[in-house]
Amino acid sequence: MKFTLREVIRHQLRPLPEVSTFAVDLTGKVVIVTGANIGLGFETAKHLASMKPAKLILACRTPETGNKAAADITQATGCSTVVCWQLDLSDPESVKAFADKFEREGGGKLDILIENAAVGLFSWKRAVTGWEQTIATNHLGTAHLALRMLPFLLKAEKPRLVIVASDVHYFVTDPNEADTDGVLQRLNDQKQKGKFYAISNRYQVSKLFNVLYARALSSHLPRGTSLTVNAVNPGLCVSSLLRDLNPVVRIPLRALSRPVARSTEVGSRVFVHAAVATELDGKTGEFLQSCKVDEPSDFVISERGASASRRLWTDTLADLSEFDDQVPVGVNRYLQ
Ligand SMILES: NC(=O)c1ccc[n+]([C@@H]2O[C@H](COP(=O)([O-])OP(=O)(O)OC[C@H]3O[C@@H](n4cnc5c(N)ncnc54)[C@H](OP(=O)(O)O)[C@@H]3O)[C@@H](O)[C@H]2O)c1
């Protein structure tokens, strides 16, 4: 699908259903929301807390802000089963420690995992692993956590994995580059030439990878499983996502977008809908926006897009296996 500026505005102005219209009872269910200390993740967690989950884990980079968010959610909803666990997605050791803690203390199964955490960076930074920070967090960390939590998701009754993407995936410059040999490694080379590799295009590329990865993982799920994996777009929302952008660009951009931007509460309804709405039972490998299944970009549904998705899958597993020997073990044991 082509997503023109007109389409963007049409979506932005579309009223979204109130959470009460699709809410469910989460009694007995275990839920994780990453990056839930602020923004869309916080609002998502707050909505889910009001559905009485057995355990709601806010997976946050900074325990101080995560613990405060947990306390605020408890106060706002009366839900006393909200906890914060530390997780830095850009550090594979932290992802491993999180998964190990879940194995010890999570209660065995995981019903809902919402992978919301991400960075919006427009300058070069490297994670502890040496990977560029946007790819390390938004793609590799997200992919790693999904694979590590798979054994627990597969033990739940109708589990859901929600990977937060974005409509910016429609606007990636030169998307065919995603279907070239060694694309991940090339994105990690600061000297790489070409618009696709520019740091100004990086956030968009990472969100395209979220869509491609969700489709790839969905296609590898074991036959007969009730686990579903979908990518979601909250639409343009007022949040701190662009905090690292130069204020000379950020302030006018925010002012210009404000008339159509959603609040984080409204945007979070898309995530909550993807995680609980019964009308989505059995739907997997989809792209969701405005609380509906929608078509992703023309590139994603093209032959090149399908090839890029397969390539991303293989390359991602190879790269993650360098940091975590449980990745190939889990892929062989749980996926087809
Ligand atoms: N806002 C929008 O218009 C918009 C549009 C489309 C898609 N999205 C997507 O929606 C999601 C939430 O964005 P938002 O707007 O709510 O942004 P936000 O307010 O900046 O929240 C991002 C969250 O991710 C966390 N995070 C960043 N790096 C992390 C890491 N290495 N490990 C663990 N957590 C990390 C942040 O933690 P700290 O507070 O510790 O930094 C924060 O909790 C993102 O995936 C974004 O791409 C947003």
From TrEMBL:
Keywords: Oxidoreductase
Transmembrane segments: none
Molecular function via GO: oxidoreductase activity
Annotated protein name in UniProt: Short-chain dehydrogenase
Source organism (scientific name): Calocera viscosa (strain TUFC12733)
